[in-house]
Amino acid sequence: MSKKSVKEIVSFCQEIFEDISFIRAREWKDAHPGRKVIGYMPVYVPREIIHAAGMLPLGILGGGADMEVIHGDAYYQSYICRIPRSTIELAITGRLDFVDGMMFPSICDVIRNMSGIWQLLFKDKFVRYFDTPQNFEDQVGGAFYVQELHELKAGLEKLGDCTISDADINNSIVVYNENRAWVNKVYDYRAATPWNAPAAEVYLLMRAGMVLPVEEHTRLMQDYLAAADREERPMRDNCRVTLIGTFCEQPPLNLIKSLEMAGCYIVDDDSMLVTRWLLKDVPSDGDPLENLSQAFLHHSAETAAKYEPNLEEKGNYMLESIRKRGADGVIFAAPSFCDPALLDQPMMVKRLKDAGIPYITMQYAENSGQMQPIREQAGTFADSIKLWSAS
Amino acid sequence: MRTQDVVKSHSQLLQKEMISRNYDRITGGEAKVSSTFVPGNLNELLMCFDIANNLPEINAIQNAMRKKSGEMITNAERSGHSEDVCTYVKADIGMMEKGNIAPNGKPFPNPDMLLLSYTGCFTSLKWFELLREQYQCPTVMLHVPYAADGKPTKNMRDYIVKQLKEDVIPLMEQVSGIKFDIDRLREYLRKSARAEDDLVWMLEQSKRKPSPIDCYFGGVYYMGPIFTAFRGTDEAIDYYQMLRGEIEQRIKLGLCAQTPEGDMPEEKYRLVVEGPPNWTSFREFWKMFYEMGAVVVASTYTKVGGVYDYDDFRHDPDHPLATLADYCLGVYTNRNLPTRVDMLARNVKEYEADGLLINSIKSCNSFSAGQLVMMREVEKLTGKPGAFIETDLVDPRYFSAANVKNRLESYFQMIDQKRRAGGSALAS
Ligand code: SF4
Ligand code: SF4
Fold first, then answer.
1. Which of A299, B125, B194, B236 has a CB 3.0–4.6 Å from the CB of B230, allowing a cystine?
2. Which of the 8 DSSP states describes residue A62?
3. Tell me: the pLDDT tens digits for A203-234?
4. Residue B107 β-bridge partners
5. Secondary structure letter of residue B213 according to DSSP
6. Whose CA is nearest to atom 3 of ligand 2?
7. Please, which residues 123-142 of chain B have a Cβ atom closer than 8 Å to chain A?
8. Confidence grade of residue A388 (pLDDT, cut at 50, 70, 90)
9. DSSP states of B201-214
10. How many CB atoms lie under 10 A from the CB of residue B292?
11. Greatest Cα pair distance in chain B
């Protein structure tokens, strides 16, 4: 294990985060002729299959807070969230020119329609709208999903002029199981000692996982945990919150920092759910597509983009995460104009009210600049929680 | 223009009467009631169980046209719903808070089931989850996959049929106490197909010059029976026959499209329109068009419940469940953008339109996300200028009459210029 310091690791991640030309992914591609890169958007794609094809899955999460969007506004109206306009900006300014294919998961109509924009504007690229089932019965949604996975596999085989064997996918399943295990360890570690793993660091660490090859990302997390443990950072009198709503368009890093600075340790969140979408290890023997399907149907995270067939179960995933991570309250931070996040929120709020768990709501765009109101709101929230728990 | 108060044809009166009859049935207390959505709605299947079909979008439209939706929306916002989300949802939730009164003045009963036909719109999923919280009634999801590559696949069709067999039909049986009879379904589907033939005939008459009908503002009335609770009934067959007769008559007389103020004296501009209309100022919006001599010869909104003319879909009684699946899969907003572009470009060419006008709806990502690209693509394919206006469905705060009028005026000027030049300059 390396002896890199937290500072070194975090600055490495920060560099990846700030690089909207994806130099690391380009280098990976250039290292061997014929390598392919597949971009994917939130919330979930089975990266195992892309990996098994010898390709690099590259998470595309918009242009971030600092990218100037010049052309994007000619593609999207002002009342549509920001992630599609900055993503199209990335594409038409050539920053995604090395990306051989894009996957658009079924998360909302904006990303769904974006698959069509890619079909219209980037005709030479592989485009896959990735539909996951909203029916979770094995013979119904499961059968549909397995076939979708077969079609994805066939599409990648054609693109890469290769065959992807079951053994290849099973090997990749092992690699991703390990990656997920370390992601969960980082999350557990942060929940246990949030002062030693600030939310902004964990965020950057996970963002690096959107770009780096999975094996490298796993090593990075191992290094980070070891390095974080070697450092003793002062514990502050913060409250503990779960951050909900950040599963697609990303909050500015400053927002995450501001919440902690205002007195809220983030002990769980729903950013980059792809890294921990599947809640259990996927079996690495047998039919891998069946196994991935079973994992999706029966052991996957909940989010606003997924239907909950059982009214009684609605919100339990959130409540369980609050319990497990020992959160005192919830901060709903949703991207402006995000139907899934904003329409789910009142239902989640009701669960919290029923359970007597405090919450606040706020909206952001990936380029929101003004953090003062957010700091004030979060500060007041933290104070009220502390008061509430002291009484 | 011959000006009268509001001119209504026999078919329009019949249509109005049909819609109010459905409200009477829903609120009458005898029939079981299912709420479901317009896109890809399964009316024939609901009929097999004598379940009345209540469509919350139609309720929101009715409230908007009666100028009631604004208050409902602000009420929903006060109770915690964001300003940013689809206003149909908020109008519906706000209506509940105001006693859930149907347009006939009677209270809506709580639905006996929610049929979440998840077709062409993600927001519908959240909408019905919200309704389920309120009504706590049996809810069934029908997930219709997105036809992302332009054509539905066998896997998609099989998935829908399985959901119908395993989940949707059993719940309908349970709610209604009626056993599913596939022959009854076939019979309804046969009737659907008959009405659909006349409907397509009607849509295609606007290829004529002048167009005897307006296929957007007028079109929403014409689509009423087929997209709501009447597809599969004899009444729908009769309605579309009556409509056909009226249009034949108009053609014979060489009349331009009918408007609320009578027949347009002259047809100056022919447009294809993409996107739903604004409902809060529907009449005022329409007037801006007919006063300037503009008729809409084709619109995508008249395909929102299902597409019949583009690839000749008709309900097929020989494959009753598969045809329901195909119907859902083919809904306009369930088609990928290249298909939507192709459909629009074909409409512009085949209906000899002057161009494409997009009414972009703030509420509706399903329609709106990507429309700017679509407009440019259609311009490229047709050589005709496009124009873009922005309004909302049922939120009066987002209808700016002056802005819309200005945009339309400049658009018509651009068309005039282009005609004079005889060239094919595109809109900027
Ligand atoms: S931020 Fe919300 S609305 Fe925008 S693309 Fe993501 S999920 Fe869709
Ligand atoms: S988002 Fe559009 S399609 Fe969906 S419910 Fe709202 S208006 Fe209808």
1. B236
2. -
3. 999 999 999 999 999 999 999 999 999 999 99
4. B101
5. S
6. B121
7. 123, 125-127, 129-130, 132-133, 136, 139, 141
8. confident
9. HHHHGGGSSS-SS-
10. 14
11. 67
